[in-house]
Specification:
By secondary structure, the protein is an alpha/beta fold. The protein has seven helices and eight strands, in the order αβββααααββαβαββ. A four-stranded mixed β-sheet has the order 3-2-6-7. Strands 1-8 form a two-stranded parallel sheet. A hairpin with a 5-residue loop joins strand 4 and strand 5. Helix 2 packs across helix 6. The longest helix has 17 residues. The protein is elongated and about 115 Å long.
């Protein structure tokens, strides 16, 4: 008996709908993704069992490294430049467009108003005039002073740290504060930061921590 040959037919699948879905998913993830800036000063936060999440936007991050140096960052770079202008007016610092651009490009800031570059400490004006790559490597050894400023007549005014917080608050009244301290930062440093905020009636802020799983020791 002869064999019956079955004619083979090509199977064609229309991939257009799947391509549309992939493009829509890609667009969704691109629009909702949060891009984290490459901050030069990073800390490992202490662990806690709190599940409260710190907002990712409209926040002034106060970063305190393991030796007590203080740095700041904001997600809105335009507002950060406005805060820089307000801060500079308080201390009589003349800004150029180049200095403002350098500040806008930096994901983090944290230098003193007056310092001696020969001793490894740069003033704010000196720092903003440096090339981008130099600023990124230098900032890790700097820090915003938290000591009250001596006026020379026996009186003292707010610290540079407080002046920065005030300048940021003047720029954005609704911004929230978050203290991001390293797990091994001296407690006295964190306490001083909290005391300076309290002196300014800034009594509401987040303390960043890492969530500790139930089985972690």
């Amino acid at each position: 008996m002869g064999k019956v040959k079955i004619k083979k037919q090509d199977v064609w699948i229309d991939m257009t709908p799947m391509s549309d879905v992939m493009v829509l998913l890609l667009t969704f993830f691109m629009m909702t993704a949060t891009f984290v800036s490459n901050e030069p000063v990073k800390v490992i936060a202490p662990q806690s069992i709190s599940e409260i999440k710190v907002p990712e936007s409209n926040v002034l991050n106060i970063v305190v490294d393991s030796i007590g140096n203080v740095f700041m960052s904001m997600d809105n770079r335009n507002e950060a430049v406005e805060a820089l202008r307000s801060f500079s007016d308080k201390f009589g610092i003349e800004l150029t467009k180049e200095m403002e651009t350098a500040f806008r490009n930096d994901p983090q800031w944290g230098v003193a108003v007056n310092a001696n570059a020969e001793k490894g400490k740069y003033s704010l004006a000196q720092y903003l005039k440096l090339p981008d790559d130099q600023r990124a490597s230098i900032i890790v050894s700097q820090g915003i002073p938290t000591d009250s400023i001596d006026n020379g007549d026996g009186t003292k005014t707010m610290s540079e740290f407080q002046a920065w917080v005030k300048s940021v608050r003047e720029t954005n009244r609704d911004i929230r504060l978050a203290i991001d301290g390293a797990y091994n930062t001296p407690y006295t440093t964190i306490k001083k930061i909290m005391s300076e905020l309290q002196d300014m009636s800034e009594n509401r802020y987040f303390l960043k921590t890492q969530y500790k799983q139930g089985g972690d020791e």
